[in-house]
Design goal:
Elements (H helix, E strand, L loop, with lengths): L1 H42 L10 E5 L3 E4 L6 H10 L5 E3 H12 L4 E7 L3 E3 L2 H16 L4 E5 L2 E2 H7 L4 E4 L5 E2 L11 H7 L2 E7 L7 H4 L5 H26 L5 H7 L1 H7 L4 H7 L5 E2 L2 H12 L1 E2 L4 E2 L1 E3 H14 L6 E9 L1 E3 L7 E3 H13 L3 E10 L1 E3 H16 L4 E10 L1 H4 L6 E4 L4 E3 L3 E7 L1 H6 L24 H26 L3 H7 L4 E3 H7 L4 E2 L2 H11 L7 E5 L6 H6 L16 H10 L1 H4 L10 E3 L10
Parallel strand pairs: 1-4, 1-14, 2-3, 2-5, 4-6, 6-8, 7-9, 8-11, 15-18, 15-26, 16-17, 18-20, 20-21, 20-22, 21-25
Antiparallel strand pairs: 10-23, 12-13, 19-27, 22-24
Length: 618
Amino acid sequence: MNESRSLLGRLGGWIWGLVSGLYKLLVVLSTIVVIGLLWLAFRGGTPVKVEDNVALVIAPTGALVEQLDHEPGRAFLENIAGDQPSQTLLRDLIEALEEGARDSRIRFAVLKLDGLTSASLPQLEELGDAVQDFRQAGKKVIAYGPWYEQDEYYLAAQADEVVLDPMGMVNIEGFSAYNNYFKDALDKLGVQVNVFRVGEYKSAVEPFIRNDMSPEAKAADRVWLGNLWSDYGETVSEARQLPETAVTDYVDSFAAGMKKYDGDAAAYAKNAGLVTSVETLSQFRKRMGAIVGIDPDHGSFRQINERDYLRAVRHERSKKKKQDKDEIALVVVQGEIVDGDGRPGEAGGDTIADLLDQARRDDDVAGVVLRVDSPGGSVWASEQIRREVQALREAGKPVVASMSSVAASGGYWVSMAADQIWAHNSTITGSIGIFGLIPTIDKPLEKLGVHTDGVGTTTLAGGFRIDRPLSPEAAVIIQSQINKGYRDFIGGVAQARKLTVAKVDEIARGRVWSGGDAQDLGLVDELGGLQDAADAAAKLAGLGPDDYELQEMEPDHPFSAKFLSDFYGHVGLSAVPGVPQWAHRLLARMDVVGQLDWLNDPRGMYAYCFCTPSNTRR
């Protein structure tokens, strides 16, 4: 009986081991299959064939960005669900237009912009330049939209034709800068926000210490917002061959125009000259089909979108013999600058510094373009990046900073040591200043019946706790650090830009400037886009415009980290179908804690600018 039980036990153990082993093998095989499918999904699959006589459709979706940096969990869900991407790489759109301009298979281009959720004026300027180059190659560009928001219309206006649906509208309202202010709310809660700053224009801290915008901040904001609005109006008026004041007149007369045309916004836009023609989508497709033919499979004109087109032409290029060329490395600083590696959407100081260090040690890299699209953040992290820029220059490799939408505060800090700084006329830059922010919550805790008491060995022991009032000695220490940080900032700018410290202090103090004004002040060398900056870096490295390749350097993320880092975090409202964009934006603005979770500087010092203009799309 015991032998029988022993035999059954051994048999059961063997069967269990077999089942367990098969299960583990199945898990491993399933994981390999899933990873393979995901790799194919992210890779984009097999490239399609580009047929002759087709239209190239430029249809960006989501936010226009310098580098794809959305949360991996969200990217995974988009791929699985077959949703449109929540981000579109600016350089991809430009490359598609450049390739299409010289591709005999591409007859004309169509701009379909209603999937675009956000874009900055400098980004649209670069894309507009690519549209103009496409047109100069002898090919037409036609924009079609059921509705044009302010961002979309800026680009659409540069096409040969701007077509609008009969029920559509050209919705332009101008630029603004509005914030929420929390002083009364914080006072009611008993939260004391201790602020340390240098510069009357350093308004990033104002929401925590005021109930309104200071007169100094309003005066400064009116200047740079006015510059951006003038640039917008001049570009649109020139492209549509309208009077200089056409856009402002359109906005100011909107209410009267809607009344005059009985609420027909499309008729008002056409009469104002902003729109070439008013057509339904079926009418537009039929008219385009008369040029390139109708595709019977989907009932529209024969076309290829920019994503499929890029995959195809890149695949075609890969088959050709590659020429050995020097590299100009592209390193992108996008989002808030934070200490450490950073998360998706942030510029981690350690991550960017490591990329610059790799570029310095890579013999194939002749120079670097630092593409900056950041309002700043941690002073410590910004300084780590600046030091690596300086190390590149000392190693004999030129660095050119290319400013995109915004390169202010810490965004200017990381740029100032470059050999040259390029910006757009509408780039938001400057905001050279420092601040520190330490809230104390002793009063709210007392209201809840929580009290803090104890002893320390020195006057500073426990002096920086947020559950105690900030001691006078601690306040002196912090303000002294802020003052030194500001001196370091303006001293670094003065040395790099060959200006006196007094002159830099005069134009600094936290004030924001447009790129055009920054050039006049000596903070920027040249106006131009990414390609201009890359050519300048190549020239400084002794290379001609055809002797180099611009090669983006991205941080190395293991597959598991890239896939899982945020997948089990929060999917958030943005992944819920049917929730309108205005709800996303409203909740994002209400998420005060989420907006401030980048405040991780080890010394509590920040060079940051709340200076992104608002319009109907933001």
